[in-house]
Design a protein that fits this description.
seven-stranded antiparallel sheet, flat, single chain, alpha+beta
């Protein structure tokens, strides 16, 4: 059957449209099934869970608020009773009124009244179990009358502490703005005391804050919460005194890495607060107790979930894992690995993706091989050019030194020739881009000895290196280039120049080379040109070829894995730091 041009075009268009329809398979599988089944179910579950959580939080906080209000009212009533009784005892009690008249214990009737006061205090403690102890101090007679419910072990320490309080200024112990109530500690236990004064008598009644916390109970079994008492911007829990928690909003606070709901009761005119903190996370965990409708929806989700997962795994996850595995193998160096293409009944866009990926890797592999071959050849040519450009520069300077000698300076010329012979032998024998550090250092020392013949008593040099880096491989003639600049630009007639060359290991795999002198250093324009060249690597005629060729060589040899720092030292003079990869040949070390 023959087709004309229009029929062929229509046939191709029909094939392309069919292919596009097949490519949408995975898209509809991933998008439509979750939208139709999972999304509505999740919306219902989330909505009901939020309602359940809100109801639970309100229920627990209301229950806690009622309990704290009730306990707070009881505690505040007991504290007010103690305060009123102490005020009445000191100002209106017959025993205290009579004892105020005595200035000495030897006066008749003093001990009789003291005994009566002790019995009165004992009766008060028996009817008020929250009070730990009461102490009355008569300053005129310097006598203490006390009664307590303290145990035998803690009685003496508590009475001594209470005696210290009634005999001293208690202003620093005040509870908030209260003039009567104070807070103090004995052996890690916290106490609340009410101080009552009248003429030459001071009375102190104490209540254990720890006992108040121990008496606190709750009705929310299994919930995580704790009680506290706060005063003077501090908080007392069963664990002891801690800093106040961070307030997040009106309902919650942040304490020890967790978020809590805080319900409290303010007492003693705002100077004392009794509260309970409920762990927010513990409350929300209870939302797992969903109602039967939520349970049914969850079961449906469990039934539909595996079907969706299997579909997703077959159409999406497996092709993606195959692609990811292939990319990992190529990234790890197996550049010849390709995705295995298989015939499938169900067509998807991953088939085209895999084929395109294989084609792309084939093209990339071929291009990369050609590019690497070309780049390596260019680097070899440029390195040879730069090395040959440096050598004539050194030779001309050396010959110029010999030329400056007079006929009478033949011994000096002979010494110079010996040094030059050693110097040129090193240069002539260079047949590699790298040399050992100790050979380069000896070469630099030879160069400096040549210069010392020319400039006697004008400079001193120090060259040292660590033993473990002596066999490190470095580019040839790099150190000598910077040392030559020290001689060329820093020697002055009436000033001794010091040159320091040092090599050491830094970290595990870096070599640091430092060349410094005590000369006049670089001027600002030169430093600016150097920084610009280090940043752009564009040659500048103002800098000359020495430093620029060295930096260019380092870049060709190490790529970006090196550092060059050129600056003026704070104490004066120029300073050059080179940081190179530490490469040590094992044979050289042996």
């Amino acid at each position: 059957m023959l087709f004309n041009g229009v029929e062929i075009a229509e046939l191709r268009s029909s094939e392309e449209e069919s292919c596009m329809n097949k490519n949408r398979t995975v898209f509809w599988i991933i998008i439509l099934i979750p939208l139709i089944l999972v999304v509505p179910v999740n919306i219902v579950v989330i909505h009901n869970a939020q309602k359940e959580m809100q109801y639970l939080v309100e229920e627990r906080t209301n229950e806690s608020q009622s309990y704290i209000q009730s306990m707070g009212n009881n505690v505040e009533r007991d504290l007010q009773t103690v305060e009123e009784y102490m005020q009445m005892l000191v100002t209106q009690g017959d025993e205290c009124i009579n004892l105020k008249r005595y200035s000495s214990t030897s006066q008749k009737g003093f001990w009789s009244e003291s005994s009566k006061l002790g019995k009165t205090l004992k009766t008060f403690l028996a009817t008020n179990s929250c009070v730990g102890g009461v102490i009355v101090y008569f300053s005129e007679a310097d006598v203490i009358v006390s009664q307590s419910n303290f145990g035998a072990k803690e009685k003496k320490k508590n009475i001594d502490r209470m005696t210290e309080i009634v005999k001293s200024d208690t202003g620093s112990l005040q509870l908030g703005q209260s003039r009567n109530w104070i807070h103090y500690q004995v052996e890690g236990m916290d106490y609340l005391g009410v101080v009552t004064k009248d003429e030459n008598v001071v009375c102190l009644a104490t209540v254990s804050l720890n006992d108040i916390l121990d008496s606190m109970k709750g009705s929310m079994d299994g919930e995580s919460y704790f009680h506290y008492l706060s005063f003077n911007n501090r908080m007392l829990t069963k664990e002891g005194i801690t800093e106040m928690p961070e307030i997040r909003d009106q309902a919650t606070v942040f304490y020890k890495g967790s978020e809590y709901y805080d319900v409290s009761k303010i007492m003693l005119s705002g100077n004392l607060v009794l509260g309970r903190m409920l762990d927010k996370n513990s409350l929300t965990e209870s939302t797992r107790r969903l109602t039967y409708p939520l349970l049914i929806l969850s079961v449906l989700c469990c039934l539909v979930g595996p079907l969706i997962s299997l579909t997703f795994i077959y159409f999406v996850e497996r092709p993606l894992n195959t692609l990811t595995t292939t990319m990992d193998r190529i990234r790890n160096g197996d550049r010849q690995y390709r995705i295995q293409l298989r015939k499938k009944r169900i067509y998807s866009e991953f088939d085209d993706l895999n084929q395109d990926f294989n084609n792309l890797m084939d093209e990339l592999e071929a291009s990369q091989k050609a590019l690497m071959q070309k780049e390596l050849e260019e680097q070899r040519v440029e390195l040879r050019y730069l090395s040959e450009q440096i050598r004539p520069h050194f030779i001309l300077n050396a010959l110029n030194i010999v030329y400056t000698y007079d006929d009478e300076e033949f011994p000096l010329a002979r010494k110079m020739v010996l040094h030059l012979t050693k110097y040129f032998r090193y240069l002539v024998n260079l047949n590699s881009d790298y040399v050992y550090l100790y050979d380069e250092m000896e070469f630099v020392k030879t160069y400096l000895e040549i210069q010392k013949v020319r400039y006697p008593d004008r400079f001193v040099y120090f060259a040292e290196w660590e033993d473990e880096v002596g066999a490190a491989e470095i580019p040839a003639v790099v150190i000598q280039t910077f040392v030559e600049n020290c001689i060329k630009y820093s020697i002055e007639k009436d000033k001794m120049l010091y040159i320091m060359i040092r090599a050491k290991k830094i970290g595990n795999d870096k070599l640091q080379l430092t060349i410094a002198d005590t000369g006049k250093g670089f001027n600002e324009n030169t430093l600016k040109d150097i920084r610009n060249f280090l940043h752009t690597r564009e040659y500048s005629e103002r800098l000359g070829v020495g430093i620029q060729n060295v930096v260019k060589r380092l870049h060709l040899l190490y790529g970006e894995n090196y550092y060059v720092g050129i600056k003026n030292s704070e104490s004066g003079g120029a300073r050059v730091e080179l940081v190179l990869p530490l490469i040590v040949e094992e044979k050289a070390v042996d």
